[in-house]
Amino acid sequence: MISKNPQLGKNRELQHLLTTEGLPTSILLQILDTAQTFVGVTEREVKKVPLLRGKSIFNLFFEHSTRTRTTFEIAAKRLSADVFNLNIAVSAQSKGETLLDTVDNLVAMDADMFIVRHSQSGAAHLIAKHVRPGIHVINAGDGRHAHPTQALLDVFTIRHYKKEFHNLRIAIIGDILHSRVARSQIHALTTLGVPEVRVIAPKTLLPSKVERLGVRVFHDMKSGLKDVDVLMMLRLQKERMQGAYLPSSEEYFKYYGLTPEKLSMAKQDAIVMHPGPMNRGVEIDSAVADGSRAVILPQVTFGIAVRMAVMSILAGQPV
Amino acid sequence: MRIHIKNGRAVDPKSGLDAFQDVYIVDGKILSVGQPPDSFQPDQIVDAQDLVVSPGLVDLSARLREPGLEYKATLESEMNAAVAGGVTSLACPPDTDPPLDEPGLVEMLKHRARNLNQSHVYPIGALTQGLCGEYLTEMAELHDAGCMVFGQPDGMLVNLKVLMQAMEYASTFGFSVWLSPQDINLAYQGVAHDGEVATRLGLPTIPVCAETIAISNIILLAQECDVRIHLCRISSSAGLALVRAAKDKGMRITCDVSVNHLHLSDMDIGFFDTNCHLKPPLRSFSDRDALRDGLRDGAIDAICSDHAPVDEDAKLLPFGQSEEGAIGVELLLPLTLKYGQEMKLSLAEMLATVTFKPAEILGIDAGYLSPGAAADLCIFDPDSYWTVTPNALLSQGKNTPFLGMEIPGSVKYTLINGRVVYQS
């Protein structure tokens, strides 16, 4: 039996943020608008607001990550929450404790919110289904499935630079198959009304039936980048060379790496985004990464405001 | 012991009988159907008013989890579940711990099962030692210990040379070989059908060609070895087409489908429902529809439950880490009836796929209602609906994608060798 959408409550209000798929446009816009109000906070001298004072937020990272964990930590601290970082990859789970046992223990320590990253698709859903009402789960990346806050900060960045969504042509370039970021971006962009979302990749890095997610599929940069307003690059993991997905990073860079020459095929005012960390010389050339069209560092800054917005909206929901 | 089953609707799929006729049983065997024997004095009368009297069900795949996996289920719990489901004969796959690759293990399982005095248990012998795909088991010895057929439940052998030799050796003794057609390399680390659902959920996939390539290889090898092949759990339309073509060429090949694949598709995974983590994976709607058609036209020979009790902890994990499998021995009859109703089949047609047809594949004398046959019967109310809940299931495992669904068919009595072993 298929259950109801697990991230929405009785009145279709956001109870957990697990994926951008199936989120109503109104909730996406609510997050973006709330984030806008926090952009000012992060630029103030005293960078704190008391919205989450007394709340306990646990960073539950079953997969190593410094950057994402840190941005969540900063966002929570700017909301005056108490933040606890658990590096589970090297603690309880390696001693044999199950995922839900770990969660139960932290619930017993009066956790209010979990930020979860896990190597398995669906891990955040599992936790969200398990915890009692009033405890919120934010998915910070589960397997290949979803990374909703990354996608939200991406659309926030796009709105900041392009103002509207309904007149854009956007290309997502790289390892779509293994990318939770790409999936979350696609759902967020199509929901917000972007008329044309493209994916550009060799066939070994595209999941089957990807066009059913509402994207146009391209296998070469020249046609794929024509008339594009926004380029969203994806990180290419080194492991892909071992798994027979690609012959070499050199060949990948030659055909799919973003160089100034390839960028010139897109619109004159196209912006370049990347979720980080970048592999310079693999998916992106330094001249582009450090060039005037790149908005990669603003993405990071906006990421904090977007994560503050998600946390404050969840914490404000009635139980 | 003499039993008179009266007022029931006797359905015998093998002969096509479907009539209100009484059944008379003496000393564990059916004495007569319809015609009352002279001076019959029953010791017990079973009133089957408004009920269907059918041969007991024959399930081609029910894991009892013994030996070695008693934390998932025990022989006692699963045999109770089987008779509650009207299943009177069941084949159990060799993927126990240790696998059923030695005569001693098989004898012990048969002995334990016999002492429980319930359903007939037919262990499927391991085709290779430890199911590792390297060395052959002592098939003839295992046969003497009670294995009717030999199989490799965990996907195809990587080494085709070993598979060919296993087929030749089995063929020497006239044993049939049961294989789950799935190429291990193509299925490696996959947990879901390679389609839109897996793409959305970001789940590693098992493409249809994992099945079709395995079936092609099996068919080509089987032609070479002249061995009887049974393909366990077909999941795809393309795979079924290969089986159909082989049958048309006159090959001795049969196949079955699980109740899960007959009713569900990958869409049912929903938001990572680990009860839908199955092997082979649930495939697309069009695959499911092809399987339903294939069963109706005989390209698929039988329905099995593919019963696999899994402990709760092994399902309370992220989808990809959860253990595959679903219970089904208690759902085999209801889900067969549901399929039959949806396809507008007669009762005899639908019951054929869970009685005499699987019995023939397994090579046992069971699954029909005529004088002289063992009195293994399932007496059920086809019009009674019930809801699948953990409490309604006797199996130790409660893992099924059908939880919460209302399904037709309540077993009222199960008889084995002329003895009422279950009554509700």
Description of the molecule:
The complex is a heterodimer of chains A (319) and B (424). Chain A is an alpha/beta fold. In chain A, 36% of the residues lie in helices and 14% in strands. In chain A, α1 (25-43) packs across α5 (148-162), α1 crosses α11 (296-315) and α5 packs across α6 (180-191). With 424 residues, chain B is of the alpha/beta class. Chain B has 2 domains: 2-52 and 374-384 and 406-423, Urease, subunit C, domain 1 (Roll); 56-362, Alpha-Beta Barrel (TIM Barrel), CATH 3.20.20.140. Chain B is built from 13 helices and 21 strands. Chain B has helices spanning 75-84, 103-116, 139-145, 160-173, 196-201, 209-225, 237-248, 259-263, 285-297, 312-315, 332-342, 347-352, 356-362, and strands at residues 2-6, 9-12, 17-20, 23-26, 29-33, 44-47, 52-55, 57-59, 87-92, 120-123, 125-126, 150-152, 177-179, 192-193, 205-206, 229-231, 253-258, 302-304, 377-387, 406-416, 419-423. In chain B, the strands form 5 sheets. In chain B, strands 3-2-7-19-20-21 form a 6-stranded mixed β-sheet. In chain B, β16 (229-231), α7 (237-248) and β17 (253-258) form a beta-alpha-beta unit. Chain B is globular, with a radius of gyration of 21 Å. Chain B starts with a strand and ends with a strand. The mean pLDDT of chain B is 96. Classes of the chains: A alpha/beta (319), B alpha/beta (424). Chain A binds chain B through residues 1-3, 5-6, 21, 98-100, 118, 120-123, 125-126, 130, 142-146, 180, 183, 207-210, 212-213, and chain B through 194-196, 198-205, 207, 267-268, 270-273, 313, 316-321, 401-405.
What is the fold's blueprint, element by element?
The complex is a heterodimer of chains A (319) and B (424).
Chain A: H1 25-43, E1 56-61, H2 67-78, E2 82-87, H3 99-108, E3 113-118, H4 123-130, E4 136-142, H5 148-162, E5 169-173, H6 180-191, E6 196-200, E7 216-218, H7 221-224, E8 230-233, H8 249-256, H9 260-263, E9 271-273, H10 286-289, H11 296-315
Parallel strand pairs in A: 1-2, 1-3, 3-4, 5-6, 5-8, 6-7, 8-9
Helix pairs in contact in A: 1-5, 1-11, 2-11, 5-6, 5-11
Chain B: E1 2-6, E2 9-12, E3 17-20, E4 23-26, E5 29-33, E6 44-47, E7 52-55, E8 57-59, H1 75-84, E9 87-92, H2 103-116, E10 120-123, E11 125-126, H3 139-145, E12 150-152, H4 160-173, E13 177-179, E14 192-193, H5 196-201, E15 205-206, H6 209-225, E16 229-231, H7 237-248, E17 253-258, H8 259-263, H9 285-297, E18 302-304, H10 312-315, H11 332-342, H12 347-352, H13 356-362, E19 377-387, E20 406-416, E21 419-423
Parallel strand pairs in B: 1-6, 2-7, 8-9, 9-10, 11-12, 12-13, 13-16, 14-15, 16-17, 17-18
Antiparallel strand pairs in B: 1-4, 2-3, 4-5, 7-19, 19-20, 20-21
